[in-house]
Amino acid sequence: MHLPVAASTLALGLMLACLPADAQTPAAASSPVTTRHPVTTATLAGRVLQLGERDGQCVVQRDAETLPLGIPAPCYFSTGRDYAAQVHVFNGTPIVLIQHAKPSTRTDWNVATDGPICDYAAQAVRDVGGKLEPGMAASGSSPRCDPTEGTDQKNFVYGYDTWPNLKPKKPAAGQPAR
After folding, report:
1. Contact (CB, 8 A) for 93 and 126
2. How far is CA 47 from the centre of its chain?
3. 53-62 contact pairs (CB < 8 A, 24+)
4. Which string of DSSP letters, residue by residue, matches 34-59?
5. Per residue in 26-51, is it b (16+ CB within 10 Å) or e — as a string?
6. Domain residues of the chain, as ranges?
7. Which residues pair with 119 in a beta bridge?
8. DSSP code of 175?
9. E strand or H helix at 72
10. CB atoms < 10 A from the CB of 160, how many?
11. May I ask which residue range the UniProt record assigns to the signal sequence (predicted)?
């Protein structure tokens, strides 16, 4: 090899080695979806729920009943610290939250500089008098790319307008009755 070619090859190698790491590595096209604790079975009001899929959508199966949901499959129950499905009881009504995540298609987000982002969907299901009732489905972008991650109670209850087991409260002293 000629000395000038070897020297220029060495110089090019040294320049590449000195570039910042983010200049050498192309930005990831999308965020990976992880399912660290994929839970597809839960017990709600003493009966077993199983998540499934029909025509690309998530469904809840209980005994012979199938409840189609408004979120895509695959889907998973939100989990608690024990990695079992979270069941919240709100105003006497047991509720589970089903979640879905997929890599985001947002073009205004750079995963390399802004961190992970996924398209996220969630829908609660409650048992009222032995009947399953789906809440309103919600979706959006989220830095949560693990649809098995637990969440707090407000995410279980936002999709409902009414609460059948809610007992009316007496107004506080000095407050007019409604």
Report:
1. yes
2. 24
3. 58/98, 58/100, 58/123, 60/98, 60/125, 60/132, 60/134, 62/132
4. --SS---EEEETTEEEEEEEETTEEE
5. eeeebbebeeebbbbebebbeeebeb
6. 24-157
7. 102, 141
8. P
9. strand 65-72
10. 19
11. 1-23
Give the rounded distance of the alpha carbon of 13 from its chain centre.
44
pTM of this prediction?
0.70
Per-residue pLDDT of the chain (178 residues; tens, 9 = 90+): 444 444 433 333 433 344 343 333 333 445 567 777 789 999 999 999 999 999 999 999 999 999 999 999 999 999 988 999 999 998 889 999 999 988 888 888 888 888 888 888 999 999 999 999 999 999 988 877 777 777 767 677 777 766 665 555 666 677 666 5
Closest to 92 in 3D by CA, of 127, 125, 123: 127
Interatomic CA distance for residues 156 and 97, integer angstroms: 6
| Alpha carbon distances (Å) from 20 to 8, 14, 23, 110, 113 | 21, 12, 5, 17, 14
What is the rounded distance in angstroms from the CA atom of residue 141 to the CA atom of residue 123?
15
SS3 for 106-161, per residue?
CCCCCHHHHCCCEEEEEEEEEEECCEEEECCCEEEEECCCCCCCCCCCHHHHCCCC
To which residue do tokens 């649809």 refer? Answer: 147
Residue with tokens 């409604």: 178
